[in-house]
Amino acid sequence: xxxxxxxxxxxxxxxxxxxxxxxxxxxxxxxxxxxxxxxxxxxxxxxxxxxxxxxxxxxxxxxxxxxxxxxxxxxxxxxxxxxxxxxxxxxxxxxxxxxxxxxxxxxxxxxxxxxxxxxxxxxxxxxxxxxxxxxxxxxxxxxxxxxxxxxxxxxxxxxxxxxxxxxxxxxxxxxxxxxxxxxxxxxxxxxxxxxxxxxxxxxxxxxxxxx
Length: 211
Fold this sequence. Notes:
Blueprint: H1 5-20, H2 24-39, H3 43-48, H4 51-61, H5 66-85, H6 89-107, H7 118-129, H8 136-148, H9 152-165, H10 170-184, H11 188-193, H12 198-209
Helix pairs in contact: 1-2, 1-5, 2-5, 4-6, 5-6, 6-7, 6-8, 8-9, 9-10, 10-12
C-alpha cells in the first residue's frame, strides 16, 4: 500500500516519463499494476463501474482513506490524459468524470488529512471537460462547489447552464433563488471577490424569478 506522498510522487514521475516517451500502453499497464498492488482493483473494473457506484464506495471509505481516494483520482486523471493525448474523447471523458466526482466528494470533507490540491484538480478537470455536455448531477455538484468556495460568478454560470440545457423544473429554480438570497446576505467585498457584485446578484435574482 502506498503510505507516503513521496512514494506516490515517484509513481507520477514514472507515468510522466512514459507519457513523454509516448509509451502509452506501458502507462496503462503501469497504472493497472499500481491499482492492483494498492487497491486490489483493476482499471478495467473501474471502467465498468458507474459513477454512482464509485462515489458510493468513496463515501463509505472517505473518512478513513482520504489519501487512498485522492490517489485513485490522480490515477484516473492520468489515464484520461493519455487517452486525450491520443485524441480518444470517448475514453478520456468518462475517466475525467469519475476523477472529477472523486475530487468533488473529497473537497466536501470538513477535515482533510492528505496534501493533494483537490481544488486545483477540480478546476483542471472542469477546464478539460467543458467542451462536453456534463451530466446534470455533476453540474449540480460543481454549482455547490463553486458557491462553497466563494466563486459566485462560476456558480451562476453553472446554474444558468443547467437551466438552459434541460427542463426548468421548479426545484432548480428554487435552488437558484435561494442561491441569490444567500449572496445578498454577504458583504460587498465578498461578492466582488467572488466576481459577482451586488447589482449583478440582484439582476440574476430577477432573471431567475422571471423563468
